[in-house]
Amino acid sequence: MITTTHILKKKRNEKITMITAYDALFAKIFDGEVDMILVGDSLHMSFFGESDTLGVSLDSMIYHTKAVCNGAKESLVVCDLPFGITQDESEAVKSAIRVYKETKAQAVKLEGGVEVANIVKGITNLGIAVVGHIGLKPQFVRADGGYKIKGKSDKEIEKLFLDAKALQDSGAFCIVLEGVKSEVAKEITNLLEIPTIGIGSGVDTDGQVLVWSDAFGFFNEFKPKFVREYLNGASLVKDALKKYVSDVKSKNFPNESESY
């Protein structure tokens, strides 16, 4: 089983791979192929069909994390803490404890920097591993007025550095950098002693993460610039489905060998 110690040792030695999963079926396919599996609150969009991640509940995150842990036995599993949890330190700590008690996840992830440093410290002091998340933060999309790239101004760059250092000092073992200008992400990665996982932040982070439905062509509502599509999944499934429908209607399925 990949542990947080393994991830820390990859810093400056080997690129870290992470992908999302929301169920046991895909977790089992991904298991051992990637270093980390993230049960992201992105499930509220790609799995549930909502327009943002804000409405997902802690119960839903725990449910899906249980499913992923049933499928993943080698990769390190991370559970996102949903929107609203980190507004109160006591509530955040209780939520992290619930994740650890009710699932086999090895870590929790939360969005924010300096403003959540005390929460990260409170969680890690209990022996719960934390992944930080700064830059473009999907849970802040309404306040930010959309999905906006970070690190374009001196003020934003200074905030990113302060956030990254605060998360490291508070005990986070790695940090997701989302939608950060590539040159800034590179500087942050070089500054920190813990790994950075990039998404839309260039090639110089310590690793990369993608949402599985983006990477494999199942989410067609829009395609972010940073996504590379490795499979035209939706078209392949539709073609197979059409063949199934055709076989049923033509009485080609089931045949004699497929019948009792």
**Ends apart, CA distance between termini:** 42 Å
Radius of gyration: 20 Å
Per CATH, the superfamily of the largest domain is Phosphoenolpyruvate-binding domains
CATH architecture group name of the largest domain? Alpha-Beta Barrel
Number of helices: 11
**Helix coverage percent of residues?**
40-55%
Which secondary-structure class do the elements indicate?
A: alpha/beta
Describe the main β-sheet briefly.
8 strands, parallel, barrel
The stretches of 5 or more residues where confidence is low (pLDDT under 50) are none
Note the run of SSEs as H and E: HEHEHHEHEHEHHEHEEHH
Mean pLDDT: 94
The total of beta strands comes to 8
Which class of the largest domain in CATH terms? Alpha Beta
Strand order of the largest sheet: 1-2-3-4-5-6-7-8
**Proportion of β residues?**
5-15%
Please tell me what the overall shape is. globular
Q: Briefly note the CATH topology name of the largest domain.
A: TIM Barrel
How many domains, as an integer?
2
Protein name: 3-methyl-2-oxobutanoate hydroxymethyltransferase
Active site: 178
Pathway: Cofactor biosynthesis; (R)-pantothenate biosynthesis; (R)-pantoate from 3-methyl-2-oxobutanoate: step 1/2
Catalytic activity: (6R)-5,10-methylene-5,6,7,8-tetrahydrofolate + 3-methyl-2-oxobutanoate + H2O = 2-dehydropantoate + (6S)-5,6,7,8-tetrahydrofolate
